[in-house]
UniProtKB/TrEMBL annotation:
The keyword Nucleotide-binding applies. It comes from Candidatus Desulfatibia profunda. This is ATP-grasp domain-containing protein. The lineage of its organism: Bacteria, Pseudomonadati, Thermodesulfobacteriota, Desulfobacteria, Desulfobacterales. Keywords: ATP-binding, Nucleotide-binding. GO terms for molecular function: ATP binding; D-alanine-D-alanine ligase activity; metal ion binding. Residues 120-306 form the ATP-grasp domain. The keyword Nucleotide-binding applies. InterPro entries: ATP-grasp (IPR011761), ATP_grasp_subdomain_1 (IPR013815). Pfam families: ATPgrasp_Ter (PF15632).
Length: 394
């Protein structure tokens, strides 16, 4: 079999991190995207750049193209990195599995894991702390509910991640105005209590094998985000929180999970409890931190694809940091009202305990490519659609 690993969605930071993680182990990597101007394609660890049909606008052609490539060449492992490619390939798992190792769960499990209302209900049954949540079955309920809520609250879509479709009404009047507007795009969004923003967010990254055994775990703490009110982490740090990790494992085992996932929590300063926020059922944007700290998730998946046995990886460097500088952390600084408190540390770029998601002296070309790809969001309808769908990733 061709020992190559094919990674989709070359625009994203996590794809670059995966290419570097595998290429650093001497593994041949092919990166795919719907355009040649994609960040990960410019990495020295990308041995072949593959332009395929857009999974957004030409999904059937995307599947046919990738299936044709796999049937002709095969590859050791196929890693879909984004929701759209993940969904398409999960629907055709049995077809692709004839030619490659595709470490993802069924489409039904993916859909369940993305549904915040279903995941929160399951978590409550498992005894995992969650924010107080109100489910609206009919808009006629809204007037009565609006008078009883403990403001401020959060309106968020039942599916999806990030700041798209999220609003923070401060009173009943704002709730009545904003909820129907969000409902038109995301039907019957849920309403949650607002966990104070000073409570830090935590991400628990997990790898599980086909038998539901945990093969690796990693926990990071969010230090900065963009948008500032809650979004993708722009600076995060590796930490040891076995209590949070154990809750994430309990939840994923209940789902009979396979492959990677990141479970997100937010610490509630009012009672000291970490509250479950959502499951990210794929690779996450902050993947570079886990790899730098010693948990090489892509390479461990590669070893699984070759039926290798290895001891579970739970130990890693504590206090390691990773920074998404371009453009994430710069945008955080610009939009943070308290930016003066970040000085002068914000502009110190040489720290031996900090790695960068994109910037690397050993692999410099993705940095230039990233700057150029930002321009594609101006004219590329494929990229505009991606940005509208989500702006949050780890």
């Amino acid at each position: 079999m061709n020992r190559e690993v094919f990674i989709t969605d070359g625009h994203w930071r996590k794809t670059l991190a995966a290419a570097r993680a595998l290429g650093g182990q001497g593994i041949r990597v092919a990166v795919g995207e719907s355009t040649r101007l994609a960040t990960a394609m410019f990495s020295r660890h990308c041995h072949q750049a593959v332009v395929y049909p857009s999974p957004f606008f030409r999904p059937a052609e995307f599947v046919d193209y990738l299936y044709g490539r796999m049937s002709r060449r095969g590859c050791q492992m196929l890693l879909p990195m984004e929701d759209e490619t993940l969904d398409l390939l999960s629907r055709h798992h049995s077809d692709f599995s004839k030619f490659t190792y595709l470490p993802i769960v069924s489409f039904e499990k993916l859909r369940f894991a993305r549904r915040k209302d279903k995941v929160l209900t399951l978590a409550e049954k498992l005894g995992i702390p969650t924010p107080k949540t109100w489910l609206v079955d009919d808009l006629m309920q809204l007037d009565d509910l609006a008078e009883r809520l403990p403001y401020p609250v959060v309106i968020k879509p039942k599916s999806g991640s990030g700041a798209v479709g999220v609003s923070y009404p401060e009173n009943a009047e704002e709730l009545r105005a904003r909820y129907p507007a969000i409902h038109r795009r995301f039907p019957l969004p849920l309403i949650q209590e607002m966990i104070p923003r000073e409570g830090p967010g935590y991400g628990v990254s997990i790898l599980m094998d086909e038998n539901g055994q945990v093969k690796a775990s990693f926990v990071h703490k969010r230090l900065r985000e963009y948008p500032v009110t809650g979004g993708a982490s722009t600076l995060r740090e590796s930490v040891r929180r076995d209590d949070i990790r154990d809750m994430a494992v309990k939840l994923l085992k209940a789902l009979d999970w396979f492959g990677v996932a990141m479970v997100e929590f937010k610490l509630d300063p009012r009672d000291g409890l970490p509250k479950l926020m959502e499951i990210n059922p794929r690779f996450w944007g902050s993947l570079s931190l886990a790899v730098a700290a010693g948990v090489n998730f892509p390479y461990l998946l590669y070893r699984m694809s070759r039926k290798e046995t290895f001891a579970p990886v739970h130990h890693y460097q504590i206090g390691k940091k990773a920074r998404w500088l371009l453009p994430g952390d710069l945008l955080h600084f610009i939009h943070n009202p308290g930016r003066s408190r970040l000085l002068p540390e914000f502009f110190r770029f040489r720290d031996f305990d900090t790695v960068y998601d994109i910037v690397s002296l050993k692999d410099p070309w993705p940095t230039l490519a990233r700057i150029l790809t930002l321009l594609t969001f101006v004219y590329d309808r494929d990229m505009k659609l991606r940005l509208k769908k989500r702006n949050h990733d780890g």
